[in-house]
Design goal:
The structure is a single chain. This protein has about 425 residues and is mostly beta strands. About 5% of the residues lie in helices and about 40% in strands. The protein has three domains: about 1-200, no CATH class; about 205-335, Immunoglobulin-like (Sandwich); about 335-400, Immunoglobulin-like (Sandwich). The longest helix has 16 residues, at about 1-15. The relative contact order is 0.12. Bound molecules: calcium ion (2 copies). One calcium ion binds near residues 210 and 325.
Length: about 425
């Protein structure tokens, strides 16, 4: 009973919005695709017909294309609700039923994560304007209740098409009929022109690809030297990024002086650079001016900490150095070393195949994560499983210090008169 009612209701809609001939399986030689796109800014989905032919042609002497019957079917995430269908060419059904979850389809074994909308065009002839092969013509737009995932034109071979036909006597396949699709004389059965969906499904949350690099203008500034740290963020993906934020906190050995950027704001106390939107292909930079106030090696790191969209190859704020949204640079200020002093250099856990060097010569036996330094020289390490990020690690530089005691010692002296 339920099934019968449902089928009747649906047949009523089909009669209202265009009678799809059940026998029209033959394809015209003038064919079209349907395409669905999504605009992030307006949050509008747009349905296009993309002809593979042009007007005028042998079937249609008019410079414009005209057509009566058309049907656009969509495969949507199950919680997606189509809203605000707005006509561009033709009068399209405004309140289509959501299909797929009804009991009539329960035996079809359909993917429960999806549902379907079939949107028919009123059968009055529509002027689509001139058709040019490969040039999309917009038919209508719609919105969704929320972003649930990709929405697509229903593929010709989607299992739902067969299930709807077999179980509910519904023709849910996309279709398109126009003057150019039909021979001028002889053929009484209208020829189908729709061949297949075109392009990827429309994604309301398209993935982005941001990358970040850092650099300094001087890696050996000297104590109290002023350096410029530059952070660069690029949108190297195919979609605009929004809500972008970067964390770039200065280490204890650097004192913040000022910053300059054309994009967003920087809060020195938290190291937060609030960027906002980055269009496709755009690069944004910030220059942080700092004073180096400690000897030794100071590391400056920055990473993307937030973005509204998902990045294809990196995750914000996860501190993973090998991702493309993380950058590091360093400066070194030579430190004094005096006879009898011992400094211990260490690197974090997790590195293997370590080798320490003094003045570019490997130190025999120095293959652990710590090194005790007692003499002046330039010290660095290599570890084969982790490459030094970005600009390479800085060396530690020790020089022979002025080792005289700072306290003045009173040395008595005498004066002797040796000639009269
Ligand atoms: Ca990335
Ligand atoms: Ca990351």
């Amino acid at each position: 009973m339920k099934k019968g009612l449902f089928t009747l209701a649906w047949i009523g809609l089909i009669l209202l919005f265009g009678l799809i001939p059940a026998t029209a399986q033959q394809l015209s030689t003038n064919q079209v695709n349907y395409q669905l796109t999504y605009d992030v800014n307006s949050q509008l989905y747009k349905v296009w017909v993309v002809p593979k032919y042009a007007t005028p042609n042998a079937n249609n002497s008019d410079t414009k294309e005209f057509g009566a019957t058309a049907q656009v079917s969509l495969k949507v995430p199950k919680d997606f609700v189509i809203q605000n269908i707005t006509d561009i060419k033709g009068f399209w059904e405004k309140s289509p039923l959501k299909l797929g979850s009804q009991s009539v389809f329960s035996s079809a074994g359909l993917d429960p994560n999806y549902n379907y909308y079939v949107i028919g065009k009123a059968p009055t002839e529509t002027n689509y304007g001139p058709f040019v092969s490969g040039a999309p013509v917009a038919l209508f737009t719609f919105k969704g209740n929320s972003c649930n995932g990709p929405v697509g034109i229903l593929a010709k071979n989607d299992p739902f098409v067969a299930a709807a036909k077999n179980l509910a006597l519904l023709n849910t396949a996309c279709s398109f009929y126009s003057r150019s699709g039909q021979a001028i004389s002889g053929n009484v059965v209208p020829l189908e022109q729709f061949i297949e969906k075109l392009g990827p499904d429309a994604n309301c949350n398209p993935p982005i690809d941001l990358s970040l690099t850092v650099a300094t203008n001087n890696q050996q500034p000297g104590l109290n030297g002023i350096i410029t740290l530059t952070v660069t963020v690029k949108n190297e993906g195919q979609n605009p990024a929004s809500g972008v934020e970067v964390k770039d906190l200065l280490p204890a050995g650097m004192s913040f002086q000022s910053y300059a950027t054309a994009t967003g704001n920087y809060t020195p106390a938290t190291g937060t650079w609030t960027i906002g939107a980055i269009p496709v292909g755009q690069t944004v930079t910030i220059s942080v001016i700092a004073k180096v106030i400690q000897t030794g090696v100071q590391y400056f790191t920055a990473q993307i900490s937030k973005a509204n969209e998902q990045d294809v190859d990196s995750t914000p704020n996860n501190n993973i150095e090998t991702e493309d949204d993380f950058g590091r640079t360093c400066v070194t200020v030579p430190a004094p070393i005096c006879a009898g002093q011992i400094f211990e250099l260490s690197i974090p856990n997790g590195y293997t195949n370590i080798q320490w060097y003094k003045d570019n010569q490997p130190i025999s036996g120095a293959t652990t994560s710590t090194l005790q330094v007692t003499t002046a020289g330039t010290y660095r390490f290599t570890a084969t499983n982790v490459s030094c990020p970005t600009e390479g690690c800085c060396s530690y530089i020790f020089y022979e210090g002025d080792c005289c005691p700072t306290k003045a010692v009173c040395v008595p002296f005498t004066v002797v008169k040796i000639r009269k």
